[in-house]
Design goal:
This protein has 14 helices and 2 strands; from the N terminus they run ααααααααααααααββ. The chain has about 325 residues and is mainly alpha-helical. The protein has one domain: Ribonucleotide Reductase, subunit A, CATH 1.10.620. Helix 9 packs across helix 13 and helix 11 runs parallel beside helix 14.
């Protein structure tokens, strides 16, 4: 057996030992969760004419700016990456344990996020829906093959950071869009709350991994935390849409900096002791990440220039942003 194979076996054994914790966290998760469904969130009020309900919805969405529409498109398409993530988790978590039960539960909960946003954009006509569906097809066809997908520890570091990032993006988009159209505010608030619960689950799992196998866990975290590509990175126009979201104040490098700082503090990275040389090196690297991210944020904000954008999914309307 090669060294990488032995490393992988050791990590998989640690995850298997955490099954009891997974079962406990699932009980807590479901006890706190309020299950909702798209048809409930988007339903017309009782005794309301459905056609009038849709007409009023479309009238309200007229006030939503093009940058916010772009943010909604990117948020929606990001949620549609669910098949890629189910595959990545299922590879390591098997089919005969509580890990498998968690993967299925997580998938069932996440599936409603893309569904409710698709239903909303169809009803509201907020976006160019045929183009949105083409982008979704191209995104799923392109796949999502991150460099970390062969390391189960890295998977959990990534999901912790990614779930927190999507929570922030959905929440901020909902607040801005909800000023004009309350329904989308309610929708994105519900989605963001569920992302927050998923984030807590994955953060607690990696906390347990750190306690069981700190040296290997730190090396995995140090490889992921300097920067993450969001799951939508392979979709058409992702970089330009992400630029819009940053300029709109919804999500950007400074938000990621805060997320990384949160995890360093929660996982008590600085306080970890008894590490070997590799673990100490990884610990030092992680503790230096916030300063690097702050420099990147400062540079982007200092060098940013006004730019004009246009996206077919947002009806090709040109708009300028500082």
């Amino acid at each position: 057996m090669t060294v990488p194979e032995m490393e992988m076996l050791a990590k998989v054994e640690v995850l298997a030992d955490l099954e009891e914790l997974v079962a406990e966290l699932m009980v807590v998760h479901e006890a706190k969760r309020i299950l909702w469904f798209p048809s409930e969130l988007l339903a017309a009020a009782p005794d309301t004419d459905p056609d009038h309900h849709i007409a009023q919805l479309r009238k309200r969405t007229e006030g939503i700016s093009t940058p916010i529409r772009v943010a909604l498109a990117l948020n929606l398409l990001t949620e549609e990456g669910l098949p890629h993530f189910h595959r990545l988790l299922a590879v390591y978590l098997g089919s005969t344990s509580f890990w498998h039960k968690w993967t299925n539960l997580w998938t069932a909960e996440e599936d409603r996020h893309g569904a409710v946003l698709h239903d909303y954009t169809r009803d509201s006509q907020l976006l160019n829906n045929p183009e949105l569906e083409r982008m979704q097809f191209e995104y799923l066809k392109a796949g999502f093959e991150p460099a970390w997908d062969k390391d189960p520890y890295r998977v959990f570091v990534y999901t912790t950071l990614q779930e927190r990032a999507t929570q922030v993006s959905h929440s901020n988009t909902g607040k801005l869009a909800g000023e004009f159209e309350p329904t989308i505010g309610v929708v994105l608030s519900n989605v963001a709350k569920e992302e927050a619960r998923h984030y807590v689950f994955y953060r607690q799992i990696f906390e347990a991994v750190l306690k069981r196998d700190p040296n290997r866990a730190l090396v995995s975290a140090a490889a992921i935390m300097p920067s993450i590509d969001m799951p939508g990175v392979s979709m058409p126009n992702f970089r330009e849409m992400a630029d819009v979201i940053w300029r709109a104040g919804i999500y950007g490098p400074r938000d990621y900096l805060k997320i990384v700082e949160e995890q360093i503090k929660h996982w008590a990275i600085e306080a970890l002791e008894g590490l070997d040389a590799t673990g100490r090196q990884a610990q030092e690297k992680i503790l230096g990440i916030p300063k690097r991210l702050e420099r990147i944020s400062d540079a982007m904000e200092t060098r940013s220039k006004s730019k004009t954008f246009s996206f077919v999914v947002a009806f090709s309307r040109e708009f300028a942003m500082d």
